[in-house]
Write the structure tokens for this entry.
Amino acid sequence: MKKRKLLFTAMLAICLASSAQTIQQTGQGAKFQTIDSKLSGEVIFYSSDIVRILKYPTANAPEKKSFPVVKIPEKVKIAYSSPQENVLCMQTGCLTVVLDAVTGRIIYKGPQGTTLLAEKEQGTRFTPAQDAGQPTYNVSQAFTLQPDEAIYGLGQRQSNAMNHRNQQIYLCNTNTNICIPYFTSSQGYGVYWDNPGISYFSDTSAETSFTSQTGLCADYYFLYRDGSQDGVIGCLRELTGRATMFPRWALGYWQSRERYKSPDELCDVLDRYRKLKVPLDVMVQDWQYWGCDSNWNAMRFMNPRYTNRMGDPEAMRYLPNGEDPAARYDSRIKSPEEMIDYIHGHNAHLMISVWASFGPWTSQYQELDKMGGLLKFETWPPKSGAHPYDPFNPAARDLYWRYLSHLYDMGIDAWWTDSTEPDHLNPKESDFDLLTADGSFRSVHNAYPLVHNRGVYEHQRAVSSDRRVIQMTRSGYLGEQHYGTLSWSGDVASSWEVMRQQIPAGLNFTLCGIPFWNTDLAGFFSHEYNNDWKNLAYQELHVRWFQWGCFLPLMRNHCSSPMLNEIYLFGREGDWAYDVQKRFIELRYRLQPYLYSMQGDVVLNDGSMMRPLIMDFPHDRKAILLDDEYMFGPAFLVCPVTRPLYTTKDEQNRGISLVPDGGIGAASLPFEVYLPEGADWVDFWSNELMKGGVDINRDCPVSLMPLYVKAGSILPLGPEVQYSGEKAWDVLDICIYPGADGEFTLYEDEFDNYNYEQGCFSTIRFHWDEETRTLTIGQRRGEFEGMLQARDFRLTLMTPDKPSAEKPVAHPDRQVHYEGHELKIRF
């Protein structure tokens, strides 16, 4: 066999010797030289379903670093053939790559020989350019797509578009726009353009292309596993790193605003939630705990309000800009350490804001300046003298953690790594010529948030694996899921239009293989509502966004000053704006076993929590183009209400009720929902079974949102709690939605460490057989310290004569005692 391969390679060389083009078979694919001496390249199989294409205008490949790619090419079984002169076919079990040695054009085909994607003829282009005074190229690669093909991904866009056909996009990270040069197709493949510099994506009737301002080669990856989006995401995570687990408490409710101005203010909010019995797991401390703008991001509590030193001349120099220096406060919480202990003592956790820039008063700034580790362009806050640091410099990353470790040692639970685009005020072209440790800022710009968050993750993991790393970053890049990082949609405005935009923004972001994402519930800037939380029109927007937040990977409330957003500001029990928020926070905690199991599926099986309809209904053309519905895990069809039904605004932005006598809480108007074809659906609130493939008008009082459960779903639901770890899961409701066969795997581990990486977790598979009306609870697999050896499952068939599963089931159909062995229960 080896001799035949050698003979085949020799014959190819002889056949092509009369012309300039050559093909050399390699152990991982092939190298080629086209008839144009200025275009050479390589086909490199990283696995049977991941192939890298490298093209360059020189004789040899240039040195190149990939920031997100962690996979090392594995040994791949490739079948080579040459069906015609100058053409080489390379076939694996998943796909065929066809190389034309004359032009360098590549075509990708599926297992049945159907063309998935083709490069455009002469679609690889190199235009000489300059980058920070050095010779480089503008690099472009063009493809030809099928006319009716839909494409997704490209990060997080504020465009209202789910499908990115016929768009031109400037790929340069900014607040609210996360730029990832990757798209995935309704044909079931993905393409990652591996250039982190400032780039462009274009789709026209003539071609679909990526173009980067600077680069020495065209470098991209083609991914195709089984024709499904789950398969493509599996390839992405194999290429850029598997997702890591967040602790269970991260799936609870997060309370945040800009900003809590003292330990007392923050702890008072926590007290109010506990007194009202509104569940909560996380309090968030936003900026300026360090004090004034000149001391930006000192990573220390130096604001005299936090250190209880108002009036102390030494401390007062750090008072934030604009705050009253004559004010005095009677503080019950005397220090930051006492604040953190208080939060933990009241069964909550603390996330704190840390930035990628430093003010000139900080020790970090002084040290970074000496090592050349600052990028000296204007960043937030304006006119403060603050500058971003260079995370591409390993010494700078070490320094960042050295200062951050002070907060880690104090017991801070999670990092809000803000402004990792980074913020760039009054940008000039010369700013992009600034040199990082890995080249010009222009050439690495979009990888900045990945490298920064990776640095924090790796340093914390080096200290301890007992506490899971959580970083919430405003920007992002491919591969961040591997470093304990999620993104949020940035500082978006409070409006119905913007709320709707966030749905496709988040769905396209998660199709880039990054499973965790969220948005400021009700938006950040509330100018359109006069920053008035008592504004009726704002309250309707707030509760609808809040309902949607229950079905995001993280549920986090946040707003910009002077707006306030704590639940008790919206009224009290009996007031609709208060009741709706409390209802959906409680539902979030009811869903915790389902949510945590979804996270287990993300880590073990490369699953996705937010699932655009292209993932589960690829043959329903209407479904795959929808931009306002999605699946949340395998069970829920989520349809947020994205327009006002009960209020409007006058010319002064004051809210006006459209319901007689202001009875918003009692009114009910319809909202349009599409139930995808290919499944039957159960209304979560009424348990009514409906056929798929139809549009319906669902009565939609402000107290609920349209929410459907796929027939055959099995939901594990937890007890009523005030925080995630309050009660063990020794008694769980298992709610079965009949109408089809179904299954679900309950995942559990130690909830906050990395022992799961060593196999310390358990799974229990549930299977529902519709024909025999039998539920099988499988044998438990795996074990971990503290695992429940026995528990009770309360089993209920969710039919229209029964209450919703929103609350613990009062009268289950069956109750079984489970000790880890298989059980079969017939209904």
About this structure: The mean pLDDT is 96.
